[in-house]
Amino acid sequence: MVNRLHPYQREIARAVLQSVFERKGLTFSVEIARQGGKNELSAQLELLLLTLHMAEPPQNLVKCAPTFKPQTVISMQRLKDRLNDAGFSNVWRSSMGYIIRLGNCRAVFLSADKSASTVGNTAHLLLEIDEAQDIDKEKFSRDFKPMGASTNVTTVLYGTAWDSNTLLEEMKLANLELEAKDGIRRHFQYDWQAVARYNPAYAGYVANEQARLGINHPLFQTQYLLKPLSSGGGFFTREMLALLKGVHNRLSGPEPGKGYVAGIDIAGEAEEAYDALLDIKPRLDSTVVTIAEIYPCPRTHEPSLKIVEHYCWTGEKHPNLHEKLINLLSSTWRCRKIAIDATGMGQPVASYLKKALGSKVEPFTFSAKSKSELAFELIAAVNAGRVKMYKRDGSKEYATFWNEVEKAKACYTTGRSLNFYVDRADGHDDFLMSLALAVRASLGYHPRLAKGN
Predict the structure, then answer these.
(1) Would you tell me the crossing angle of helices 200-213 and 368-383 to the nearest 10 degrees?
(2) Of 85, 196, 224, 406, which residue is 20 to 30 A from 345 by alpha carbon distance?
(3) How many whole angstroms separate alpha carbon 339 and alpha carbon 335?
(4) Residue-wise pLDDT tens digits, 405-442
């Protein structure tokens, strides 16, 4: 094991094994930058403990992950590979689809999904919690922590940062507090630079990720810099807002030889009706169309956008918009790709456009998962300088756009999900969502072809 692991991995392994062998029952928190080797460390610990205890009375080590497929299955396969590497290919056995046995010693792999049943398992040697930032705190306390109560088992929580409310972050803070009292190290943290000292190729990989995502991207901040995020803050940083500012003119029509995409956010008629029933002043959401020129980024050849026009209708009934949208998107701008909000009341409009304009239309249904993906795509594009707003023109659309992007907030939730929105008290987010959908449209169209006639 020692020869296979880097020094920072061996440092963790020594502390964990000392707790196991001396029956200390310590709980460790381990943060290693993404692709930095935490899974290899885990597999090597499992291999060693299975080997040392294979001829002793039956004992278990238990490992869980947020999902059985693919996360738990991947951990199982890694352990099988290490057992084979160690010469145990004809010795180890698999049973019940989640247990790997070497002699009398067993590694039990479980899902920590809220609905998964884990009752009846005991952890004698080691309890491992993989991707602990994505595991429900109540699930851990109720179902997994008691597995080692009768054995005073050593516990290791692995993962990366997310927000300040995760299981891993809470355990990290508790461990740092204990360390300050007794001097026993319980928290281990190695960001991408610590990993890159021992793997030059990894440094190149992370440099590419930084260029792709931007250093301010939530995924880069948490997975490579290991910095936790705070919900309720601005969705865009000051640097990102500066990157959004362009110097090009707003256009009223297409320029020869240029390609265009569109993002369309549909007003929620149902929400306005609901507000009226409650005697609340309706939000009067708007249907907003963002038109953007698409072209390849000179440095990365990724799709880049210049926002060149906005259209906004407030209080307009959806059927009245059908022909207006067809004329704008097809006849006027000849858009190459269109992403449109197809959620709720937007679905009929999206269906109409899809039928009229064909495959260039991508209906987008908002959900917690899809909106999170949309948020990450938007941040990556802005961070890379691939989205530019037209310069100040004194218009209401210009002012509304900047009000929304400046007021936009971010909320981080379990499972590394990101919600972005404008607080109801601060106004609307129609221009913001239309912008995000325009970026989505650009990802579905090859930018090199956008230069054609």
Answers:
(1) 100
(2) 406
(3) 11
(4) 999 999 998 888 999 999 999 999 999 999 999 999 99
Give buried/exposed letters for 218-232 (b at 16+ CB in 10 A, else e): bbbbbbbbbebbeee
Element containing residue 53 per DSSP (H, E): helix 38-53
Report the alpha-carbon distance of residue 111 to residue 69 in Å, rounded: 8
C-alpha separations of 166 from 161, 171, 204, 230 in Å = 8, 9, 30, 11
Judge whether residue 288 has pLDDT over 60.
yes
Structure tokens given for 153: 């088992």
CA 37 to CA 193: how far, in whole Å?
A: 13
Give pLDDT, residue 300: 66
pLDDT in tens, 72-123: 999 999 999 999 999 999 999 999 999 999 999 999 999 999 889 887 899 9
CB count within 10 Å of CB 173 equals 14
- Rounded Cα distance, 84 and 80, in Å: 6
What is the per-residue pLDDT across 216-256, written as a single tens digit (0 to 9) for each? 999 999 999 999 998 888 999 999 999 999 999 999 999 99
The contacts of residue 451 (CB under 8 Å, 6+ apart) are 257, 258, 259, 295, 296
3-state secondary structure of 316: coil
Q: Is the pLDDT of residue 67 over 90?
A: yes
Residue-range domains of the chain with CATH: 7-211 (3.40.50.300), 231-451 (3.30.420.240)
